[in-house]
Design goal:
65 residues; mainly alpha
Length: 65
Amino acid sequence: MLDMSGLVKKEEAHKLIDQLSSNATWDDLMHNIYVREAIEKGLEDSQLGKGKEVAEIRKRYGLNE
């Protein structure tokens, strides 16, 4: 949905809206936009080597592996 400059591709925004149910609310739309943006940011961070290994995160928070 976002390109590297942060611009929204209109056709991707339309697809996101088209996937909503007919009784979707503005909150539903905003949630879907937030989730999509978070996923894209995570993918971008991963491509830039900014990700962390699951084992490292689990160790940091004392979670079982």
